[in-house]
Amino acid sequence: MRNLVKYAGIGLLVMGLAACDNNDTKASAESAAAESQASGQPISLMDGKLSFSLPADMTDQSGKLGTQANNMHVYSDPTGQKAVIVIVGDNTDEALPVLANRLLEQQRSRDPQLQVVTNKSIELKGHTLQQLDSIISAKGQTAYSSI
Would you say 57 and 33 are in contact if contact means Cβ atoms under 8 Å apart? Predict the structure, then answer.
């Protein structure tokens, strides 16, 4: 379960940073208010071990971007501006802070503009998670990512 959360977070960071593609953000700001009022759709993975809700406008894109061979599930909105990626990985003995720091170093090697806002352990329903919030600016666009 811990690895699933780790890989889901990594996927969110990657998709958040990929959103810096010079698209017009005025239309997405207007639709954000409508989306926040839309009901979510339940998603259940790993035989019910992981469950979460997605906004109503997000659909399963796993057939286009992920395969069962790479254990990747991709959900995105029609514009591709928002995405949730879940990657099921192997068990590891490494702690979440170690994995988060490795992710940060890998991302910094690709993009030196990466700014870390928060990197801390948090407790949620009795489970220890790692919160990693970052900001990246490129070509006049800013992308916020939270894992």
Answer: no
pLDDT of residue 113: 84
Task: Give the residue numbers spanning the domain of 127.
Answer: 2-146
pLDDT above 50: residue 71: yes
| Predicted TM-score of the model (pTM) | 0.53
109-130 residues labelled b (16+ CB within 10 A) or e (exposed): eeeeebeeeebeeeeeeeeebb
Are 61 and 73 spatial neighbours (Cβ–Cβ below 8 Å)? no
Q: How far apart are CA 76 and CA 79, in angstroms?
A: 8
Domain tally, the chain: 1
CA distance linking residue 53 with residue 35, whole number of Å? 13
Out of 6-10, 12-16, 135-139, least confident range: 12-16
Q: What is the C-alpha to C-alpha distance for residues 54 and 89, in angstroms, rounded to an integer?
A: 21
Q: What CATH number is attached to the domain comprising 26?
A: 3.40.1000
